[in-house]
Amino acid sequence: MPRAAQRAVTAAVEYTVARAGIAAVRVLDRDVIGQAHEPRGAAGRVTAWEMAHRPSNRQRSLWVVSLLEVRPADRVLEIGFGPGVAVAALVRAGAGHVYGIDHSAVMLRQASRRNAAAIRAGRVTLVRAPVDQIPPALDGPFDAIFGVNTHGFWPAPAQQLAELRQRLAPGGRIAIASQPRIPGATADTSRSAGRNIEGLLRGAGFTQLSTRTLPLSPPAVCVLGR
Fold first, then answer.
1. Pair (47, 144) in one structural domain
2. Reported pTM
3. What's the mean pLDDT in 30-49?
4. What is the CA radius of gyration of the chain?
5. From residue 5, how far is each of 10, 12, 13, 51, 117 by CA, in Å?
């Protein structure tokens, strides 16, 4: 298929999945933002489906995984694993063990089904927990920690990032990504989000910061640090 046609198909799927997902959630639960924060019930299952199948979501997750450049012995922690798309990508990329937390029971079920074989093989551990109550079993150390479109929902991002830094192994890396989903978001909105993430990471003690951009609509930004 010609590249232009591929882009057109992807754009059509993006529009259809997003519109259908949001419309269905509104029928089941008018609190669309709350469902994005913590999917629950029937509306939560629809939200999880939309998150897993929306092309830009998948592109964004796979891109962040590629930026982590995982190695076979790496222990990786995802904060807010959602439907488990990035977890599955990390397994395929050869990460030694992938850990994840999410405070949604719906997402835990979805991600566990998507990664059932890797869980049985002892390569994936998924836990239901909020970022401000990470269980001691996940104290680390981790070679990489990341979050995709989740830090905006954390109770105290600056504090949580400082705590996550304590869980990194020496030389470990962090990646915090954002693709603004607010109505009317533009490239400027994404740049502003990137600057905000940089400030949070710098304040938490991370260094060697660099920002990458994925040309979606609006763009996704990912700030890497150590």
1. no
2. 0.82
3. 58
4. 17
5. 9, 11, 12, 24, 35
